[in-house]
Amino acid sequence: MSSEPGPGLPFLPGCAFRDPMKTSFHRSQTLGYKNGYALSRLPTVGIGGERLYVNQLSQPDLDELSNTRPVLTYGQSKLTPPSGFVPAHVAFDKKILKFDAYFQEDVPLSAEEAYRIRQVGIYYFLEDDSISVMEPVVQNSGLPQGKLLRRHRVPKNDRGDHYHWKDLNRGMNITMYSRTYRIVDCDPFTQVFLESQGVELNPPEEMVFDPYTEKRRMPITKYTPPLQVDRLKQFLTYDKQVLRFYAVWDDAASMFGERQPYIIHYYLADDTVEVREVYQKNDGRHPFPVLIKRQRLPKTFVDRKKTFPSCVLEISDLEVLEWHTAKDFAVGKATTILGRTFFIYDCDNFTRNFYRDKFGITDFQPVEINKKQPEEVPQVIPPYNGFGILEDSLQNCFSLHPKPPRKDIIKMLENDHKVLRYQLALESPNPEDRKRRFILSYFLSDDMISIYEPRVRNSGIIGGKYLGKTRVAKPGSTTENATYYEPSDLTIGSAIEVFGHRFVITGADEYVLNYMESNAESFPAAALQALREHFRPQQVVKETANSDFPMLGSSRQELDELIVQVQEELKLREYLNNKNIEEAFLQCDKDGSGTLNRETFLDLCNRLNVPTNTTLLNKLIHLCSCGEDKINYRDFLRAFPS
């Protein structure tokens, strides 16, 4: 709490009064920090922000008063108080001495320079006597530049002394870390500071520059010989105007050579020539359109030594006496370009008009080029090797990438899942093969044939697939005119040859008869009649079996009851194979009548281990008899369901 004296009262106890309205009593700061250093400053306001009536003089006034000696009329004069101590880091803060210098660096592995001059700046910091060396960055110098020596106190000798600003002067050498710098000049602040400290400065020297860098900065002198032709005028006059000639290069005399067409372009703007190759379809060559790129073509060279490296150096006007011009190209004339002789046989309309207006040439009769027609090589189709389908194998003779043969989609859709089945017998001198029976399947959708051999137990022959699904050609058909077996060729009693094996058709199923009757116009009448005669005995047996008349003194109902009883008895005999029994009876019935001789029937039952000595089976055989010597085996097989 502060108090002030009343107006007109002395500042004595009892004469001061407290201000009840005052609430702020803080003191202003008199100590601060600047750049990390503590500094004292005079207060500007009193406690609580009140006005100060003392110490309101400025710093210069205070310094003047402190240095003014009072004049006294008596006594000894008083000494002036000493000034305050200021440390070096405060007095020399941000005060730097800068010297311009350079050093020489040897370049042992260069053919263009033996040494290199590098300019640097030496900075001496007065606050802590540290030194830093900086090199200005030179563009495209290829050297790591910038700070060469970081800021620190640099040792002067081995005794532990360090460099001081008194050791630096213009026109002297200074060695730091085995590198000698030549100081040539300094900045004005450094000069004023050293002179104020009583240092006598040497006269400044000129900065030495790097000779190789100065050489690179100099423009390259080019010698341009005087031109007899105004190229700019020629370019402006003939820009985008090109002469076109049609030529051929006859290389038929060499091995595998031929006559090749080319197009020669002559650019009037700069007298350059370009040769382009004419690419033709299926000519067997890679499409490289440019044979000779656009360039000036020399016509006559200067006499030079044989050792002149013309294949390495570029050809200039000093090596060429004469270049190719528009006068060197004409229709009906041969021109040699870089060792190749091109015969010009025609040109375009613009070229004709240019030569007519420029040179007065009117003869542009094109020359006929007789092209030798290649000999036609007849295409010989090799014989069929038997692998795959003939049409599919034939595609490999027409293309490197064969395509599958076309299929009759409409025929495939109309005849899908329509199959004609026939029974075949193999014609062979071997007696065992004569008994073999096959089933031929003819697929109407794609005219393919497959052959299957039913398995016969204890026959010694492995049955199964005999021929995969494929088209079978007729005997005598050739690769050029191949004929295949059709449904009209498959008749009862006809023989077919399948890959060297001869088969005889001995039977067919009822679907074949129905199909032939519905498409009678596609089959011979004799084939249809033979198939009907084949099925006639079976139809008689079927009609007899389905009739309501009694069968040799027995009724149909009695036969059905007897078959049920036989099946119950045969269930105990598991060794019987009903499927093999049925196949054996069908093979013995060669004519397909449905009946067998009694002797053959009984012999077959004995081979198949059928117990014919039982009462029920004897009664069943009696009921299935058709006369004295015939037995209807179809009714008998009803007791052996497969």
Key terms for this structure?
642 residues, alpha+beta, 6-stranded antiparallel β-sheet, 16 helices, 26 strands, 22% helix, 25% strand, elongated
Please specify the SSE layout and strand pairing.
Layout lengths: L2 E3 L10 E3 L12 E4 L2 E4 L18 H9 L20 H4 L4 E11 L8 E11 L4 E6 L10 E7 L19 E5 L2 E8 L1 H9 L14 H7 L13 H8 L3 E9 L8 E9 L4 E6 L12 E6 L2 E4 L18 E4 L10 E4 L2 E8 L1 H10 L31 H5 L14 H6 L4 E8 L4 H4 L2 E7 L4 E6 L10 E7 L24 E4 L2 E8 L1 H9 L6 H22 L9 H15 L7 H11 L6 E3 H10 L7 H9 L6 E3 H5 L5
Antiparallel strand pairs: 1-2, 3-4, 5-6, 5-10, 6-7, 7-8, 9-10, 11-12, 11-18, 12-13, 13-14, 15-16, 17-18, 19-20, 19-24, 20-21, 21-22, 23-24, 25-26
Helix pairs in contact: 10-11, 12-15, 13-14
What does this entry look like structurally?
By secondary structure, this protein is an alpha+beta fold. It has 16 helices and 26 strands. The strands form 7 sheets. Strands 8-7-6-5-10-9 form a 6-stranded antiparallel sheet, with helices on one face. Strand 17 and strand 18 (340-347) form a beta hairpin. Helix 10 (510-518) crosses helix 11, helix 12 (556-570) runs antiparallel to helix 15 (615-623) and helix 13 (578-588) runs antiparallel to helix 14. The termini are far apart. The relative contact order is 0.04. The model is unreliable at 547-554 (pLDDT under 50).
